[in-house]
Amino acid sequence: MNKTTRTNNRALSAIKEFISMESFGGVLLLFTTILALIIANVESIAPIYHSFWNSSFGFVFEGFSASLTMQKWVNDVLMAIFFLSIGLEIKKEMLIGNLANAKKAAFPIIAAFGGMILPICIYFSVNFGGEYTHGFGIPMATDIAFALGIILLLGKRVPIELKIFLVTLAVVDDLGAIVIIALFYSGGIEISYLLSAIFVFLALFSLNRFGIKSITVYIIGGIFLWYFVHHSGIHATIAGVLLAFTVPLRAEIISRSPLMRLERTLNPLSAYFIMPVFAFANAGVTIGGEFAINSITIGVFLGLVVGKPLGIFLFTFLSEKFGIAKKHENLSWMHILGAGFLGGIGFTMSIFIATLTFGGSLLAEAKITIMVSSLIATIIGVLFFKFVLFKVKKTKEI
């Protein structure tokens, strides 16, 4: 077995392990989401639930403030750690993974762009000239944990190439969401804190270049980076991504590099703790209240259920027809369309962007729409695979 084959086998094993982890994480997400919905709609315990997440926790010491509501600790601190794990995955994929080879990466990258651009266009068209256009980022996201969870439940008839395609698409999708959050969902900029954040980032990057491989050093620097980014007006989760790009990947053995070791630590933490806690903290919406069908709900629904699959399918189909990218030989266009339907499961990132965009009843309506849209996208995706794709494959075999 040559070196290239061993590298490819290790990469495939890592992808399979990631898929398995994310799939089980999707089950936990579903459980905590349902639990939050039940608690938020039981009159006797709903006030306790809302009071807990709105209560403050932390300390203030000589001008240094670390006091946040419990929900903010989840959305700003735990989610920064989640974004750190995403950033590590993106960096790894760009340097040694599916995004390192431009020819192989082109197809899922184009799919991801289609899955972001068309939902945004649909949302804008529905909200054009209105006051809710800033919610355009909500329907552009794909929840990889839920999508891979559904793929896993569909069994071994789903080719590994489709799972890799979906993982790569989701990584690029996450990168797009990070850029959108940084550019459009941050507050007024505080120059002094921003300059401090830039200084810490450059210092950490310099440590990387000088060969410092201690994870502890980067974590300590990351805490300062989070604090300065949080106070700069840029959303605190971006600090996680910035920190990820300073963590070294170089090592005598790649699997022992600081980036890979930190990623192995954070991936289960994100899948089995951070994401379920985020869902539990944010999915508790009172369904019994008034729900208005407005331009927000229509834009989000159409963006996820219609825009995602159409964008993914059309962009990839046209890219192959024009010779820009090539679909894997083991995948059919029916596979791509089926993945497109599952791409409409927005959930985690969609809810996160919604919390940055709206408040009060509008936020509740957006959350309900995201959950309903994700459920419908799941149902359509499962039915498509079960009764269209698998049946067509079985007919061909006969």
Overall description:
The chain is mostly helical. It is built from 14 helices and four strands. The strands form two sheets. It has a two-stranded antiparallel ribbon with strand order 1-4. Strands 2-3 form a two-stranded antiparallel sheet. Strand 2 (60-61) and strand 3 (64-65) form a beta hairpin. The longest helix has 38 residues, at 3-40. It is globular and about 65 Å long.
Overall pLDDT metric: 87
Along the chain, the helix and strand elements come as HHEEEEHHHHHHHHHHHH
Task: Please give the largest β-sheet.
Answer: 2 strands, antiparallel
In the CATH hierarchy, the architecture of the domain at 3-56 and 101-184 and 287-397 is: Up-down Bundle
Biggest sheet strand order reads 1-4
Sheet-strand content, in percent, reads under 5%
Radius of gyration: 21 Å
* CATH structural class of the domain at 3-56 and 101-184 and 287-397: Mainly Alpha
Helix content: over 70%
Briefly note the structural class of the backbone: mainly alpha
Low-pLDDT stretches: none
Query: Whole-Å distance between the termini?
Result: 37 Å
